[in-house]
Amino acid sequence: MIQGVQIDLISADRLDRMTSMEKIRLILDDVIEGNIVVLEKGLSPEEQSKLIEMTMMEISPEGFSGIEMETYSAREGQSSPGFLGKLFGKKGPSARMTVIGPANQMKTIKKDKDLISAWVSSR
User: Fold this and answer.
1) Which of 12, 28, 31, 3 lies closest to 97, judged by CA?
2) Per the count of CB atoms within 10 A, which of 37, 59, 70, 78 is most buried?
3) 116-120 and 98-102 as β-strands: parallel, antiparallel, unpaired?
4) What gap in Å lies between CA 20 and CA 44, rounded to an integer?
5) What distance in Å separates the CA atoms of residue 83 and residue 16, rounded to the nearest whole number?
6) pLDDT tens-digit series, residues 10-64
């Protein structure tokens, strides 16, 4: 068997075809298995909140220790849609890229506007 860490790179196209709960379950199942998940297109703030909520329910003392998550915010210069945009259903800018992994294996070392550096250990 190969030793190391599995990294799943999930395209924006695949994420766009999934419901919020499908995305969250896919991410959580992968991370519980010890995989690192990189999303080309980040989650919405509501999806991030739900992921954290569901993660808290999965944590156990002898098993899953939670997640570490880093996300690039929307690009500079993009703003939220404002009152009229929200009224007409326009969404604000979404996160660009998200890296998620098991809390006991992944530690963020540095995050800049265009770089996320993480240290990942195998089990």
Assistant:
1) 12
2) 37
3) unpaired
4) 9
5) 25
6) 999 999 999 999 999 999 999 999 999 999 988 988 999 999 999 999 998 888 8
DSSP H or E segment with residue 117: strand 116-120
Q: Which residues are within 8 A (CB) of 13 and not within 5 positions of it... i.e. 6 or more apart? A: none
Q: Which amino acid is at 65?
A: S
Give me the residue label for tokens 């993480």. 118
Q: What is the DSSP string of the chain?
A: ---S--EEEE-HHHHHTS-HHHHHHHHHHHHHTT-EEEESSPPPHHHHHHHHHHHHHH--TTS---EEEEE--SPTT----HHHHHHTT---PPPS-EEEEETTTEEEEEE-SS-EEEEE---
Residue 60 corresponds to which tokens in the numbers above?
A: 């156990």
Q: Is the pTM of this model over 0.85?
A: no
Q: Pull the structure tokens for residue 114.
A: 């265009």
Of the candidates 26, 29, 11, 27, which has an alpha carbon nearest to the alpha carbon of residue 69? Answer: 27
Q: Is the pLDDT of residue 84 over 60?
A: no
